[in-house]
Amino acid sequence: MSKRLPVIISCALTGAADTRAKNPAVPASPQEIADQAIDAAHAGASVVHIHVRDPETGKSSTKYAYYEEVVQRIRASRCDVLINLTTGPGTMLTVPIDAPFRVESIPNAELMTPSERVAHVVRLKPDICSLDVATMSFGDAVFVNPANHLREMAAQIQACGVTMELEVFDFGHARLATHLIETGVIPNSAYFQLCMAVPWGAPATPTVLAEMQRLLPLGAHWSAFGVGPEQFRMVAMAAILGGHVRVGLEDNLYVSPSKLARDNAELVAKASRIIEDLGYQVASPDNARKSLLG
């Protein structure tokens, strides 16, 4: 057996993309999300990454009441899984082909201020929250996270005692995140989530993942995930390179080629088997707390 630390499995439960029509197992209501979080924990996840959706439409939402209900249900269940709330929504815009190119003229941009993006984190105080250190193209849309927004969000997150998960999608994002740590904007306690195979970010190959890891601060805790068919290959690659892993219906709807996953727990169970088959131990929530929260 390897002497490496146990491998933490994070489960990204639902995400913001319009995926429920593709797989009805994607949870939408607060109860569905909380129930799948608890089931994922029982299957081996020690962290659950949470977006919320409008239960009527299944579309992405930022409504505080939905976050509050999910968190309360998980806490009331006495499940000891670590809760990780997203701060990603409110960052996407599209740019018209014709002038003028003013953001305020773009319909349905729905951009949120840094304070609005972290308001639910400040009130609910989860164990962890994400911080997307990335401005990039997502197909025809643009994912917008300028450094001045990151500095403001990081200050508010740190003030309420929540650990930051830095989501990076390409080499430059890793360099920026490292710079923000080196300059004291983000504490050393932050850890990295390497997001691979996201259009148009870093590809999910062993050499690219190893180079992304090399750019991180010495001794940094890190995890990685691959989108779609790269999900389980990335579980193996990240574990072998000494990292932690993420799976879940946010990133991938299938448990095997052409077979839809029946829930998040099925994806977590498969990741657990891969980790154990490689000779590693799956982390408990207590292991994850000691590693990520100090």
UniProtKB/TrEMBL annotation:
<keyword id="KW-0479">Metal-binding</keyword>
<dbReference type="InterPro" id="IPR008567">
    <property type="entry name" value="BKACE"/>
</dbReference>
<keyword id="KW-0862">Zinc</keyword>
<dbReference type="Pfam" id="PF05853">
    <property type="entry name" value="BKACE"/>
</dbReference>
<dbReference type="InterPro" id="IPR013785">
    <property type="entry name" value="Aldolase_TIM"/>
</dbReference>
<keyword id="KW-0808">Transferase</keyword>
<protein>
    <submittedName>
        <fullName>3-keto-5-aminohexanoate cleavage protein</fullName>
    </submittedName>
</protein>
